[in-house]
Write a structure and sequence with these properties.
One of its GO terms (biological process) is SOS response. GO terms for molecular function: ATP binding. Belongs to the RecN family. Among the domains are: 199 residues, Rossmann fold (3-Layer(aba) Sandwich), CATH 3.40.50; 155 residues, no CATH class. The protein is α/β, with parallel strands linked by helices and 550 residues long. The strands form three sheets. It has a six-stranded antiparallel beta sheet with strand order 2-1-4-5-6-7. It has a six-stranded mixed beta sheet with strand order 8-12-13-3-14-15. Strand 1 and strand 2 form a beta hairpin.
């Protein structure tokens, strides 16, 4: 419930604070004193839009603070989920700077306006004069019927499943679009893959072929060099190896005579052996060098195929071509598997749709069962509040699956028993809409579990017995939850458990709006003034006392 409302520098209000009570809180006062402005200020902390035009003094910021009891488990969970301290009291604050910039706080933690609205939607239902457009909205009508039918949780569960179904449908559509695009590209990709598979390259094949081809192209020159080298080392008139052998033989004659000759002889022997080995290897290489024209042609053909494919795909190595081949294989495999994926998801979607249809039919039955009792209750209440000829009718039709079932709900209204029912927004006046909304909210208030309900001039266009019945209805509503109502009618004001009077006061030539809670005697006097004018008569005082205490 709303415990306290503090306002600074808002519209005609300089500064005030009011402590509200459980039950029925009534606000009265002179026209223009600022009664509705109180609810306008409260609307700020509920997330309503505001700018610098609401500032009483343009160089000073506006601050509105509301304190609520926060014992509800769902509120505590919401605070925890949003990293906001959860205390016994819930403090909402809205600040409007002179520049028009707005800031919002929950328990002194800065929050967005969206967060503020999300939280307060579970705290307060604010019904302002003629603000009854939601009565004609299907969402509101559905929520009313669901609350009375006791299927709100079932609808929420269904809705979460439907959203999953919608996501699955979207995924299916995307898969089909992808498949369509892939099928368009499939033939070309298959052609590219066939080219690569036909080429059948091995890792590094083109690089190795290029190296081998260089060798074959230079085979004749290399063979000539090798032949000359072997001849120089081992053959001819004066082969190097033979010369070294002769030198070594001559030096060995004197190795016992000169100490250093022995060491040099050993080195010459090693050089002779090494050169002899080199000559043998060169001879082996020379014998294995051949000019293979067929091999050269084969290598040239492979390289031509490879270079064309590299150029075609903008690649530079054999292994890059092989990587492309693997990629194409995967993509074509994905196309082949797409049918299976789509078929599996279609089966899943169909099963989920059948489940949703079953649940939607159950919800429809619950709504259908509640329609007639709801209409009877509302029409009975309409008669109580001075609209005996008015009738509400609920049109419930079924159609395709949607986020809330298969039902299309439409509240129709006939104000004069003409038997011509039309959508509420088209045929009901402002006063009729206000009383109709009160009747409906009185039925669903306990089910939707709002902490506080606020009504701004719910009494518009009524008097006498109808006004009395509106008061009774508000009193009954307040037995279940806190109700705050602005009124001009004594029949309603007399039902107050807490009566607040808004007035203007001259302080040093400055007119300021004030509010105070009336005592029981002051309430009786206020009701008497509402009955007979500023100077109540004895009879009006007696009547007022009976109304307040009766």
């Amino acid at each position: 419930m709303l415990l306290q409302l503090s306002i600074q520098n808002f519209a005609i209000i300089d500064e005030l604070r009011v402590d509200f009570q459980q039950g029925l809180n009534i606000i009265t006062g002179e026209t223009g004193a600022g009664k509705s402005i109180l609810l306008g200020a409260l609307g700020l902390v509920l997330g309503n839009r505001a700018d610098s035009s609401v500032l009483r003094l343009p160089d000073k910021k506006c601050v509105v603070e509301a304190i609520f009891g926060s014992s509800k488990k769902q509120l505590q969970q919401w605070l925890t989920q949003n990293d906001i301290d959860a205390d016994e009291e819930l403090i909402l604050r809205r600040e409007i700077a002179a520049t028009g910039k707005s800031r919002a706080f929950i328990n002194d933690t800065p929050v967005t306006i969206a967060q503020l609205k999300e939280l307060t939607s579970a705290l307060v239902d604010l019904h302002q004069q003629f603000d009854t457009l939601e009565l004609g909205e299907e969402d509101f009508q559905r929520e009313v019927l669901d609350a009375l039918a006791g299927c709100t949780e079932a609808v929420e569960l269904y809705r979460s499943q439907y959203l999953g179904f919608a996501r699955l449908q979207k995924e299916l559509e995307q898969l089909k679009q992808q498949q369509l695009q892939q099928q368009k590209e499939q033939d070309y990709k298959q052609f590219l893959l066939d080219e690569l598979e036909q080429a059948s390259f091995k890792p590094n094949e083109l690089e190795e072929a290029e190296q081998e081809l260089k060798l074959l192209n230079n085979a004749e020159s290399i063979a000539a060099v090798l032949t000359d080298s072997v001849a120089f080392l081992k053959e001819g008139d004066t082969p190097v190896v033979q010369q070294l052998k002769i030198i070594l033989q001559r030096l060995q004659q004197y190795k016992d005579v000169h100490a250093d000759i022995s060491n040099i002889s050993e080195r010459l022997l090693s050089a002779q052996i090494e050169l002899s080995d080199i000559a043998s290897e060169l001879d082996h290489l020379q014998n294995n060098i051949s000019i293979d024209e067929a091999r050269m042609q084969q290598l040239n053909e492979r390289m031509e195929i490879g270079y064309k494919l590299q150029k075609k795909h903008g690649l530079h190595a054999t292994n890059e071509l092989l990587a492309l081949q693997q990629q194409l294989e995967k993509e074509l495999q994905a196309v082949a598997e797409a049918d299976n994926n789509i078929a599996a998801k279609e089966k899943e979607a169909e099963q989920l749709k059948l489940q949703l249809e079953k649940e939607a039919k159950n919800i429809h039955q619950l709504r259908s069962k509640q329609t007639e009792p709801f209409v009877k209750q509302v029409n009975a209440l309409l008669a109580r509040v001075g609209m005996p000829n008015a009738q509400l009718k609920v049109e419930l039709t079924t159609g395709m699956l949607h986020a809330y079932g298969i039902d299309k709900i439409n509240f129709l209204f006939d104000a004069n028993k003409s038997n011509r029912f039309e959508p509420i927004s088209k045929v009901a006046s402002g006063g009729e809409l206000s009383r109709l909304m009160l009747c409906i909210k009185s039925l669903v208030a306990e089910r939707i579990s709002l902490s506080t309900m606020l009504f701004d001039e719910i009494d518009t266009g009524i008097s006498g017995e109808a006004a009395k019945q509106v008061g009774v209805l508000l009193k009954e509503l307040a037995n279940r939850q806190q109700v705050i109502t602005i009124t001009h009618l004594p029949q309603i004001a007399a039902k107050a458990e807490a009566h607040y009077f808004v007035y203007k006061q001259d302080e040093k030539s400055v007119i300021k709006t004030k509010i105070r809670r009336l005592t029981k005697d002051e309430q009786i006097e206020a009701v008497a003034k509402m009955l007979s004018g500023e100077r109540p008569t004895d009879s009006s005082l007696v009547t007022a006392r009976e109304m307040v205490t009766g």
